[in-house]
Amino acid sequence: MSAAETWLASFRAQAAGLPGAGLPWLDRVRSQAIERFAAEGWPSGRLEAWRHTSLLFLNNESFAPAPAGGVDDSAIRKAVAALRAAGSGAAARGGDAGASADGGHWLVFVDGRHAPALSQIGSLPVGARIEPLSAALARKADSLESLFGDASQGGSPAALNAALATDGAYVELAAGVALEAPVHLVFVAGPAGSSAQVRNLVRAGANAQATIVEHYIASSADAATLTNAVTRIEADADARITHVKLQQESERAIHLASIDASQARGARFESHSMSFGARLARHDIVTRFGGEGCETLLNGLYHVDGKRHVDHHTRIDHLSPRGTSHEYYRGILDGEARGVFSGRIVVGPGAVRTDAMQRADNLLLSPRAEADARPELEIYADDVKCSHGATVGQIDEASLFYLRTRGIDEAHARNLLTWAFAAEVLARIELAPLRERATQAIRSRLPGGELLETMA
Question: Among 149, 203, 339, 394, which residue is least crowded by beta carbons within 10 Å?
Fold first, then answer.
């Protein structure tokens, strides 16, 4: 049986029990999506969008949904408590290990299933709703049809997600509603051989504001798992949505994910992608400017070592005048790791007064590490200001010499320069507790990270 046939059989076995099963529009989307995946299979390097990150090797690996209760409950509780304490210093002070630095609204999923006992949504202002997607589909299914998306969107992994998504989060903000504390969506990968298909939907009304944080963690440090996640965001006029993603799954995990955002007039969208785990991680990030004066910031940092591989594939569609987009990605690569950045900014006809900038920079800590950077511009309008650039290099010898003359030994000097390279990306995360969470995550991975604990 081929890999596509295996997933098709999995769909047939699960379809009747998926959230919203029996809804005509959703059943149609799922059927079309699994048919598309069965026809296309995992993408290969022959496809332009996947030329650096073929997934054909997945044809030789087997993943299946884990049975309910397939992960040790105590291990999950410990992992979630540690995550909530990160950035607060609570553990260091001997305080509540489950405390959170930013309070926040927490929705936890284990193996793609909502875990009510671990979730803590808390009080919400009038006009705000945070709930599992399964609950939203049961409550107001027809209003979710356009936001859920269809089988044609994204690559074939996104189609597989549309067919098999077991749950995810639904965040809805009425016009003018602002959430002061972040929404934390936690996805815990299960035992070896398990797969999780999660789909998150975010709808922000005019002038609404929220910060959404997606955490991807492992219940086991060495489990080979598959996570396939899709997040769809709809931002109405003048809404402001900040999205932070911390990917810290097992170093044997496969992590496939896409973020698809649409912005109405004057809306602002920020994406901060921090990728520190998984043997292969692919992040597709797309946003479209559907009205004048939209703004977006795409900001990313990744660290890979050994033979691990990470790929960020982005696209920003400037479809209306006076849009502004800034894009910054930095990678730190060691061992025989490979990092890929492929970003495209498209300035459509009539999108005058566009201001777009794109940067991709990679720091190689090993002569065997490899970085591929492909920043691209497509411009079909006049009166625009657009630029892009990319660098791949090693630690600057002049900077290293300067630190050595100040009495710092070579190893620590290299660690300081590596940290400085990463810190510029972290500084763009405005909310301090979130910035500290990301800081702790990268410090735990960098050479000599334990010596950098006192640095902001």
Answer: 394
What is the DSSP secondary structure assignment for residue 120, as one 8-state letter?
A: B
- Coil, strand, or helix at residue 390? strand
The answer to whether the CB of 359 falls within 8 A of the CB of 389 is: yes
Backbone torsions φ then ψ of 114, nearest 5 degrees: -60, 135
Per-residue pLDDT band for 70 (boundaries 50, 70, 90) equals low
84 to each of 18, 190, 200, how far by Cα in Å? 29, 19, 20
Rounded to the nearest angstrom, the gap between the alpha carbon of residue 432 and the centroid of all alpha carbons in its chain is 19
Give me the pLDDT at residue 94, please: 40
pLDDT confidence of 348, banded at 50, 70, 90? very high
Reported as a pLDDT band with limits 50, 70 and 90, residue 98 is: very low
Q: Is the pLDDT higher at 168 or at 440?
A: 168
DSSP string, 223-239: ---EEEEEEEEEE-TT-
> How crowded is residue 25: how many other Cβ atoms within 10 Å of its Cβ?
15
| Residue whose pair of structure tokens reads 């001997």 in the numeric block | 94
Give the tokens for residue 10: 């999995």
The three-class DSSP label of residue 295 is strand
Q: What is the DSSP string of 362-388?
A: EEESSTT-EEEEEEEEEE-SSS-EEEE
Angle in degrees, CA 55, 61, 64, rounded to 5: 105
DSSP state of 182: P
pTM: 0.93
Structural contact between residues 202 and 229, judged by C-beta atoms closer than 8 angstroms? no
Angstrom distance (rounded) from CA 46 to CA 128: 44
